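This follows on from our talk about sequence and fold. I would like you to pick a protein and set down its sequence and fold. Go ahead and set the record down below:
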Amino acid sequence: MKLLSLIRFLRKPLKTTKTEHLDRPQQPAAKQSRQIMYSDLQQNLDKLRSIYSNCSDIIIRSFVIGGHTQAIMMYIEGLADSESIEEHLFVPLIEGEAGDGQDLAYLKKRITLAQIMEFNTFEQCVEFLSNGYPILIVDKITQGLAFGLSKWEKRAIEEPSAEAGIRGPREGFTETLRVNTSQIRRIIKSPHLKMESITMGEYTQTRTVIAYIDGLADLTVVDEIKKRLQEVQIDGILESGYIEELIRDHPFSPFPLMLNTERPDVACSNLLEGRVAVLTEGTPFVLVAPITLFSLMQTQEDYYQGYWYGTMTRLLRYCFTLISLLLPSFYVAVLTFHQEMIPGSLLVSMASSREEIPFPALVEVIIMEVFFEALREAGIRLPKQIGAAVSIVGALVIGQAAVQAGLISAPMVIVVALGGISSFMIPRYVAGIAIRMLRFPLMMLAGTLGLAGIMMGLILIVLHLCKLRSFGVPYLASITNPQLKELKDVLFRSPWWMMNTRPRLTGGYNKYRQGNRQMSASWEEEE
């Protein structure tokens, strides 16, 4: 009976827990209502202090304008330029004439700053402060002024490490949004380049910019991207990967449906083809949409070098992508089910190397692939000084020790190494991740059904690719409805004088990218 009484007591909810929940605010503190500011300065000050309670980085300074009117200046330390505030705001305001503070229009004329904004709600006030703008609130006026004097520590413009090249610009995007937009604006100087801003994240209030060229981009795609961004309801956006995952068409597909880049020239080249770029504050990675599968196999250096070089390297990428995807599975299938396909002398050599191996080929290749992926991930996460050394030494030592111990055969080490090296030919890291993930189910099918299993897996992959859409554009758009003029920049790279038209699905509003030269016109007539 005592035990039952104890159980009933423990199952009863505690009253203090219910009280704590009732005492919590119904709205998060970061979400302020659109409350109009008071005409009394002290009421405005009390309201702002309640909003920014327990915030030691908030600077509030009370002073008198022209020796007559009370006012306060408020800014966040570390986000605003305190020296410029002293020089351009306090000095002209304190030295003003008596009664100047009664007229905001006169104050705006007296302050020698280019960027001065008015606001009349506490929500706008909080937004300006969060962006580093100092604000001025004057007694007996229900409006305030915000000044463009934001300043914080920024990373210098550097060469992007993930998209290094031999020829081309060395500049990369940074974590500062306005620096990134200025880099694009510096390349594309036309006023047709449009940039629309959207704020995302309830707590982070992350600014996001949608960039496109009016007259080249499909406005339906622009409106769709804008609609999806506005519908996102999330606490915070810390990186553009959040946005990519939230607005993509097929959330469960391993293939990337948006291109991410750190290079301004790559973003601008896609804008010139009628695509849309999404820039996010706090990250150097810019998203580009819509894309196709073949967009992931192209690099900007293909267009900076000669077209023969671009064509050769592009064909090599396609070949080695197939090798990376199929070589381990093909080796397992042939070794397990189709030994008659192997030449006799090679079969004897492989049989002798596998004579003392305790595992079947499928288990062997899975073990090696897992260790290879672990070494690759370790090399990325470790510091640069030791990451490459650990990857190389680990691969050599573990591979050699496993072969000598009789756990792994030497041909299997060669096959896995070739497959791993081939995956490095894929220019986009996210596309390489998809290929590496698909290798494992293909290896399972090869180990159970042989070459028939590989064919089944490839058919499923192709069907999945045919189903994918990137904001309405088919993922295999360039080859599902093949036209010769559409293949000029897909499997090979044609000379610039031949690429007279933009891609049909992204550049339909302004078809021609250059003048109708005689050679390009005659080439299109032959099509």
